[in-house]
Amino acid sequence: MSVVEPPGQQLRTRSMLAAALDGTPPDDGSPVVVRHPGRRFGWLFSCIWLVYLWYPLRTAAADPRLGWRLVGVLSLLLFAGGFAWFFIAWRGRRIAGDQLVSTPPATVWAALATGGALLAVAAPAAGDQVIAGFLYLSVIAVMTLPLRPALVVVVVAVAATLLLPRVVPGWHVQDEFVGELLLGSFAAFGVGQVILRNGELVRAREQLVELAVARERARLARDVHDILGHSLTVITVKTELAGRLLESAGTDPRLHRVRAEVADVEALARVALADVRATAAGTRTVSLPGELAAARQALEAAGIAADLPVATDEVPAVHRELFAWVVREGVTNVVRHSGARWCGVRLDADCVEVRDDGRGPGADGGGSGLAGLRDRAEAGSCRLETGTSPAGGFLLRVACGARGST
Fold first, then answer.
1. Angle, alpha carbons 182-188-194 (nearest 5°)
2. Dihedral (C-alpha) 248, 253, 254, 256: value to the nearest 10 degrees?
3. In sequence order, what are the residues at sequence separation of 6 or more whose Cβ sits closer than 8 angstroms to the Cβ of residue 404?
4. Alpha carbon 28 to its chain's center
5. CA–CA separation, 144 vs 139, rounded Å?
6. Strands annotated E in 115-183
């Protein structure tokens, strides 16, 4: 269970919008509690799978050779513990903070190799029952690897199940286990896809909430500027007129105080008008999800195929506004000047790229829009680069952090 307390009105608005999307009552200011009912007992899902290891473990424990018995039992216990740990760690990464975090393929292949080595060590004591361990290797593969490498692992496991009993003396044919292996692999693939889709839905919901908040802030900025700005402008003009009329009203000493008060009112009105304009301008900040949504609409309207990211979670908050300006300027240039048929945006933690397959960089090196964007990038300790994209068109890239200082 994680508790998030809204520190200000913006987060309160976010919680109200999220509640509206859920169909639940809006937040009344109390802490927002986000529960993950499966996280506390998630380890049970991995332990349920371990029932298949009972057969090789029982066989290994019955081996009359003490040395091989100890080696076989210990290897199988390590195999079981490693599978449970790997599954729990993978599941924890996939649901941590409602974000999708993929397991590096090198880690998966190392886990598969370690598991295969442990099964090989346990084989002299467990005999043909060690084939049950192939199911766990297949489950790890289909839940963590891309589809094609996972299919390769499953095919190898099936082939080993069919061939090893026929070439290893004393082993019995276990062709019926192939059906269980395939069924378990299919079930594991289904579980992985369900977790993946649920995570994508959560992220899409967060993007909708963030976009709704940005639109509400823009609407509030317009209302503040249009309503209060107009009223304060009128007050300023009328107080200035009143001051001029008082100046021609005569030299009565009693009017000096009136002139001073009117001048104060005029000064206060001007200050208030400047504050309203500054507040409205500060509220009209760009948001990265909003700019991606606007970019998709603009590209579709221009008949340009769009390849845009669906989430922005990996971009740190300090870079999101700058990256939003990059997306806005880059896509605007693609629509207006590139003559492209395709446009793609790539995001990561410290870099954003906008590329197309149009006519490529011009001879002028970019207009005032890119110059202003370069100033924004330098103000954020980032570097703007332009050039030819791999597709032959224009490439706009802004890199920050270590990548931006090279």
1. 140
2. 60
3. 350, 377, 381, 382, 383, 398
4. 28
5. 9
6. none
> Widest CA span of the chain, in angstroms?
123
Over pLDDT 70: what percentage of the chain?
74
3-state SS record for 235-247: HHHHHHHHHHHHH
The tens digit of pLDDT for each residue in 305-316 reads 999 988 788 888
Angle at the Cα of 8 from the Cα atoms of 349 and 289, rounded to 5 degrees? 35
Say what the pLDDT of residue 61 is.
Answer: 84
| DSSP letters for 204-228 | HHHHHHHHHHHHHHHHHHHHIIIII
Return the pLDDT at 229. 67
**Residues in the chain, pLDDT under 50:** 1-38, 96-100
Question: 46-56 burial, b if ≥16 CB within 10 A, otherwise e?
Answer: beebbebbebb
CATH number of 288-404: 3.30.565.10
Helix (H, G, I), strand (E, B) or coil at 275: helix
Instruction: Give the 3-state secondary structure of residue 145.
Output: coil
* Local structure of 49: helix, strand or coil: helix
Task: Name beta bridge partners: 351.
Answer: 348, 399
How far apart CA 345 and CA 356 sit, in angstroms, is 9
Per-residue burial over 375-384, b if 16 or more Cβ lie within 10 Å, else e, is ebbeebebbb
Beta-bridge partner residues of 344:
307, 355
Number of neighbouring beta carbons within 10 Å of residue 103 = 17
pLDDT in tens, 230-264: 667 767 777 777 777 777 766 666 677 777 777 77
Tell me the one-letter amino acid at 278: A
CB atoms < 10 A from the CB of 316, how many?
12
| Model pLDDT, residue 345 | 93
Q: How far apart are CA 188 and CA 87, in angstroms?
A: 11
Find tokens 């390769």 and name the residue.
Answer: 152
